Amino acid sequence: MAAQSNLKNMTLALGAVCLVCSALLGVAYAVTKAPIEKAAQAKTEASLSQVLPAFDAIEESTVAVEGEDVHYYKALSEGKVVGYAVEAGTIGFGGPLTLMVGVTPDGVVYNTSVLSHSETPGLGAKCATDTKFMQQWQGFNPGEKILSVKKDGGDVDAITASTITSRAYTRAVALAVAAAEAAAAGEAADAVSGASLPQTEEGGQDNE
Amino acid sequence: MSNKLKLITDGLVKNNPTFVLILGMCPTLATTTSAVNGLSMGLATLFVLVLSNIVISAIARFIPDKVHIPAYIVVIATFVTLVQFLMQAYTPAMYETLGLFIPLIVVNCIILGRAEAFASKNGVWDSALDGIGVGLGFTCSLTVLGAVREILGSGSIFGWNFLGGDGMLAFVMAPGAFLCLGYLMVLFNKFLKKD
Fold first, then answer.
1. B31: nearest CA partner in chain A
2. Is A6 part of any domain?
């Protein structure tokens, strides 16, 4: 019934199958490339508007913190810097944990949002849904409070039974604050009057 | 005609991949943390299973025996990658929760198992029906398992929280998956599989 298993037949059959399949995948890749990029961009924009005060322009850049390049977005409103959104990545319990952290020019955390995580569902994964955990970051001032979980003597309420995730989250926020400071220091020359912040308290659109 | 219908119901009950054949346990245990996750994983698998069954039954005659497994795997992997692209492009939120497990469909024993045991020996039409039946069986099992774990573990169902708090966390994690799966298997074989 099946074709004979000689070298010629096997090569031809496998070759043909692979050729057709890769052609198909190539087409699918080309077709879905734009929508995938659009989805990723929409996600970045959504998280930017969530973690930053109202802005009308955005500038992308990188800054070196602890020897590593950190990607950040500078938000401007009418020419003034209103905040920095830093893409801060650390390692959580289940794998990489990437946050978008908004920091105002005076070093206070405006809001945070989870870009990607692979934490345990029902436990660490709550870092993206637990309102109590997420709300404590709004207006968190690292100058007055200690940026580490309560178990380690800090001021951050950890998620129940997910200390490792909470520590990673806290570390990412600390990294973001450091990056924002470094970014602000880098352009201190033209950002002397960064004191007038719009104190808009927006309702969280944190559940999807 | 009833013969064709039997192909589908067989996949749901007599050949139920999860509770009777006990195939594809990795995605079963890993993705059923909620009913929606189980349902979408089941549907993704159903899609791949039907398409790969169709294609494999059509090309099986031309593939020499010695290389049929690599050829089938290439076909299956292609469809899985297609699903991945489509999900990433059009349902990014779903891709975020399931993305990790989509590539695992390639090595899901159900798909290669049906390709070997059924599609390579039967016609295109029958293979498609077999794919639908087994795929639906897998989808239903995963949805039920996900629903049970979600009710017990998070106190909610399809994302709707009726408890107003957390459930028993163990059921969302791996031990709960094994427990629920075991008990559901017992119930399934007691009441549904009458042989």
1. A121
2. no
Q: Is residue A68 part of a domain?
A: yes
- What is the pLDDT confidence band of residue B92, given thresholds at 50, 70 and 90? confident
Give the count of domains, chain A. 1
Q: In chain B, which residues have their Cβ closer than 8 Å to the Cβ of A15?
A: none
What is the structure's pLDDT at A204? 38
Has this prediction a pTM greater than 0.80?
no
Range of the domain at A169: 52-185
Alpha-carbon gap, residue A77 to A84, rounded angstroms: 12
In-domain check, residue A10 = no
**A21 lies in a domain?**
no
Confidence class for position A136, pLDDT limits 50, 70, 90: confident
pLDDT tens track for B59-80: 888 888 888 888 888 999 999 9
- CA–CA separation, B104 and B112 (whole Å): 12
DSSP A103-119: E-TTS-EEEEEEEE--P
A13 inside 8 A of chain B by CB: yes
